[in-house]
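Board notes (copied after class):
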Amino acid sequence: HETTLTMDLGALRLDAQSVRAVDLVSGTAIPLAIQGQTAVARLSVPADGVLAIQVAKPAAAAGWRVAQSIETLDRGIQMRAIDAEKPAIPVHWRYSGQITRESEGTDHCVVLVADGKRDTTIRQWAMLFQPEPRGVKLRVRAAATGVQDGDDARIRCQLAWVTRSFTHYENVTFDLPGGTYDWRDFEFPIRCEQPLRAIQLFASLGGKSAEARLRIASISLSDAVRDEYVVDGGFDEWYEPQPKELRPRVEQQVSEIREGLVQLRKSTGQLSTPAARQALSSVLGKCRSLREMIAREKAENGCRRVLRDLETVEGHLGPVALIAYGVAPPVMSGPSTAVPGDTVRLSFPVKAAAGVPVRRSFAAPGATVVARPGGAALTLPRDAEIGSVIEVKGALHVGKPGAEAVVTSSHRVAVIAPLELALENHGFDPEAGTARLRATVRNHRAQSARVELAAQAPSGWKVTGAGPLSVPASAERSVELRLAPEGASAAGMVDVNVTATAGADRCSARAFLLHIPKEANLLKNAGFEEGNTGWSARAEQIDQTVARSGKASLKLENRVVGQTQVGQSVTLNQKAPCPILVQVSSRALNVSGEKGKGYALYVDIYYTDGTPLYGQTFDFQTGTTEWQFGQVYIEPAKPVRVVNVYLLLRGKSGTVWFDDVAVMEDLRRKGNVAREAQVTVDSSFSGYDSSPVNDGVTVGEGLHWTKEAWASAEEARPHFIELRFKEPRSIARALVYWSLDGGVARTSREIAVEIPEGDGWKRVALVKPGAPEPVTEIRFAQPVQSERFRFVQPMGAGPQGRPNLMWVREVELFPESTAR
């Protein structure tokens, strides 16, 4: 999120010329724009992130950091004293009561010790996220000493599952035998009629007998899909106590570091003096010595709190060293994206005075990074996963070797596909019926590429224009593909797949184009080839020198800001509502003003009951442009009598051309009877209801997301939509419009159509879309007659990534099997 922070430094009693700003979370310096006593900072707040901004004089900032370092050490000294006698504890298990650890070589077990007063328990949430109910096996390896009948050695399982509104819990307890016995393996079945979200495991020993011990070597949960859900069920990972023999040495060195910080704090007002720099180097050297001693003793686990405190202290002293040596804070920058196998340059400049000891180092887990003058070169692995992120960390080391301060800056590089292909509908030639499709290829590699395009269209269609493209590095190129019917073809959708290939790099895209044959266009003289016939245009407004297709276009020109428009009316007299599509291509030359309704395709409609719907527009880009394509899709609430189409240049100066205009009823959807039906659904996601399923609206732009589509509850069970008519209807085909979530079709992977039969349901169609598609057409072998039609998504057959969700914009039913 980009935002601006404005500060009145005078009110804060800060000197505007001497203060500096820094984000304490990342350590990044924040530039300030100073105007008098006002400071303005432009901030970029990361998603789900936070900034903690410090504004202070450098000396005051350094004093604060040294004070924070002393406070960190004091808190650590206190906590180590409190925890001194605590035993080792398992990393991934919480416990209450008294536990110990027994080891044999590298194998460990946890021991639950009864104290005669209270239960001793270890517990962990195991996350299952089952998509459907599955039996779970609990396996336990345990041994017991002196466990009496009343000591209640047991494993309790708290089962958790989620429904639409609640989280539900059920407890299942399995008793372990009493007495004394060596290692034994136990297996218990866990059954639940619901898909389990999680199981909380409680291994317990009652507190009635102080001599009882329950040893557990392993706890395991598995089902048919996964062998293990428990984290560290074998008790391999432990938080160790600080070794007793090291405690005096550690505390002595921590005290010396603290004393050094106290002395350094006295010098924060004069950090650039040799004495202050020496005090800083001494503290940093002692920090390093303590860290090395802990490493030599292999005591990193037991001294983890000490190491964490050292990291905090060193993190504070890095910015202090920058102030002491007059070094600018380092900033790493560079490209935010790269493709597998490519090398990108990153900037990491060092701004330090001559003689100041500085050096740089870099790290990038999962990639190769090499220092270069002024920065580094990052090379991504050839097998880097698309969508992953590689973080590069640059470190600036300031000070004498062995006593350096380290200040870091990081940069994230997202791994993207080498090629990207986008398809855009660019209208049609009204005379030839040829559809235009703009294919734009973006080359994300650091070198140019020769890209081959291959288009696949349905039988009966021919594609031209799919030649090779030379695409420079980090650039894009476009080409116009043309799809022409090889014979007579009815109006309808044409499914086109285009593949782009450059060596081993490959990508593809899919587009659905609405084919409009000449006879389906309801406008007269749609391409202005017959002059101004049918249009409210003057003869001189027909331009024979500029055309999108054919030999002519409409030209509107305002030498100064003016009001110019041309229109045509089309009479429909619909008997039932049917969607209307209006299209046009336009080109601009020096058109003034911002994009808006002044330069637009503008449509008014009048319903058969006399009421209007005004101002349905597509607004074109102003300035000077190539041919643009505009489309208005109207889903009328009532039957339409008249459509008025206007081509506008109003309130603007400049010149525009219009060509290839079309008005047609969407014949795919003509005759839809689903709007007459009553809709019921098996469930609804929170906030959703079934009203969008047959409201006649498939283009939900401007609607709240809960009114664009219906979504089922996201539960592991079959989901369905049922349409019930007042009397039997004969249906030949159906259209299911899937939700478009962020522009991505959330197509179910399987959908069945059923009608009642006896006390159950009879399947009359089954469709398994091979890839996400915005609309799925279902054609019955023979027309199906029924009062009720049910569209069923089997359990787990939802869209990719959300298998337990059914997400539908609209369902339409048609009595006749109209042309595609």
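Comment from the instructor: The chain has a mean pLDDT of 92. The radius of gyration is 36 Å.
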